């Protein structure tokens, strides 16, 4: 039986903040921004609400190697690019990962229900700086 969660001002503010971003912020970045709107909010409250939103399927929690978890307002499956120079995390448009999943399923007797694919390299900004 699923639990219906009451709406909260804090959770609504966090979700609204994430929807305005394209950079997959950390909990600390979310906290610093939300604190301007809700001065008495604690970092623990932000972490709990981010975890809850992730569990509810409203956002994605992304762990991409070194560094803190990041949060993505796009909950549907999609791939990400991680810049090895600056650490920027970006959404990948038009990925071919569905083909990879179909191929993986052919050689696997179980059922693949989800996946996460990260591409690593240099983002456009770091690539330009490296070639300058």
Quick description:
It contains five helices and five strands. It is α+β, with helices and mostly antiparallel strands and 132 residues long.
Quaternary form: single chain
Helix content: 40-55%
Strand content: 5-15%
Query: Given the structure, what is the number of helices?
Result: 5
Q: Helix/strand/pairing class, anyone?
A: alpha+beta
The H/E string reads HHHEEEEHEH
- Overall shape: it is flat
Number of strands: 5
Largest beta sheet: what is the strand line-up?
Answer: 4-3-5
Q: What's the Cα radius of gyration?
A: 17 Å
Biggest sheet: strands, sense, closure? 3 strands, mixed
Distance between the termini: 58 Å
- Low-confidence stretches are none
Mean pLDDT: 89
């Amino acid at each position: 039986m699923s639990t219906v969660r009451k709406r909260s001002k804090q959770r609504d503010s966090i979700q609204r903040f994430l929807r305005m971003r394209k950079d997959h912020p950390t909990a600390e970045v979310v906290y610093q921004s939300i604190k301007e709107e809700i001065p008495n909010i604690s970092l623990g409250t932000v972490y709990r609400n981010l975890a809850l939103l992730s569990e509810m399927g409203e956002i994605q929690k992304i762990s991409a190697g070194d560094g803190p978890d990041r949060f993505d307002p796009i909950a549907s499956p999609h791939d990400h690019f991680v810049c090895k120079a600056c650490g920027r995390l970006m959404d990948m448009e038009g990925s071919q990962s569905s083909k990879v999943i179909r191929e993986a399923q052919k050689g696997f007797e179980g059922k693949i229900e989800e996946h996460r694919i990260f591409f690593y390299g240099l983002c456009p900004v770091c690539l330009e700086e490296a070639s300058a």
